[in-house]
Design brief:
With about 270 residues, the chain is mainly alpha-helical. It contains 9 helices and 2 strands. It has helices at about 5-15, 20-50, 60-70, 75-100, 120-125, 125-150, 155-170, 180-190, 195-210, and strands at about 235-240, 245-250.
Length: about 270
């Protein structure tokens, strides 16, 4: 009975590097060169136009200064919110110690069922990521409750500070950072960092497209090529004027109607009309 020796194959696979170091170095060099060019353009442009103060179209400074004044005017409420935060972190510390000792304590705080940021199993099973997750959720709950508990703000200001506080809380989620997101961390190890270099290059492309300002691309501008995967149906323009071009497509069957059909669907939000 024959057997297959897989030791050589296994050894070769294990010896294979996670990525090509030369390709990775070239990617870093390309990103560094593009960064230097964008930085130089930014400095030149702003040196010519002069320094400008950041604008505050939404009136955030005034709204949050008013919030801080109301919060400081009630020391008891401020102390109570700080005490609640301390108790929650103490509970998390105790729970973490029990888990390190081999126990399975209930989590101090859990994300909402609709929260997709922490669906990966490592957020629950890995001690470090679970601790970061719960620590973030405790701080997020505390900050949101502290802002919501302030009295004396008018309805418009209250809604404004509540909305932007939620944006701030969401922006600081550990899932948004490479070193604190287990999925990104695993991908970084698997690709030898190529995923981070690719993402950084995409960021530089968006900044370059916006002439120094971040303009996030929503579509792949290189996905279609005229005559290759778009506008490939044979045909010709049989009539045109200042308003329209009438295109007659070549038949794809042996028999066709003697008179061609002119199809005119609704014109709303249409770049062209069939």
């Amino acid at each position: 009975m024959g057997t297959t020796d897989t030791s050589a194959t296994t050894t070769a696979a294990s010896d294979k590097p996670a990525c090509d170091p030369v390709a990775l170095a070239e990617s870093f060099a390309s990103a560094a060169d593009k960064s230097a060019k964008l930085l130089g353009d930014y400095v030149t442009r702003h040196a010519a136009s002069g320094a400008t103060l950041p604008s505050d179209e939404f009136g955030l400074s005034k709204a949050f200064l008013e919030l801080a004044a109301k919060l400081l005017s009630n020391p008891y409420l401020l102390a109570q919110t700080q005490l609640n935060l301390l108790w929650d972190y103490s509970a998390l510390w105790q729970s973490s110690m029990l888990r390190l000792l081999g126990h399975s304590p209930a989590p101090v705080v859990e994300p909402a069922k609709s929260d997709k940021r922490f669906k990966h199993e490592d957020w629950q099973e890995h001690f470090l990521f679970d601790y970061m997750k719960q620590s973030y959720l405790i701080a997020a709950r505390w900050l949101h409750n502290a802002v919501a508990s302030v009295e004396g703000l008018d309805e418009h200001t209250q809604k404004k500070v509540d909305f932007f506080t939620r944006q701030y809380i969401d922006a600081l989620a550990p899932s948004n950072f490479a070193l604190t997101n287990p999925e990104v961390f695993r991908e970084t190890i698997a690709t030898g960092g190529q995923n981070l270099v690719k993402g950084f290059n995409n960021l530089l492309d968006d900044i370059e497209r916006g002439n120094g300002h971040l303009r996030i691309s929503m579509t792949d501008t290189k996905a279609f090529e005229l005559g290759v995967n778009i506008a490939t149906t044979p045909g010709k323009i049989v009539y045109q004027n200042e308003l329209i071009q009438l295109i007659q497509y070549e038949p794809t069957t042996q028999k066709v109607h003697k008179l061609p059909l002119l199809i005119m669907p609704p014109w709303i939000n249409k770049y062209y009309i069939l």
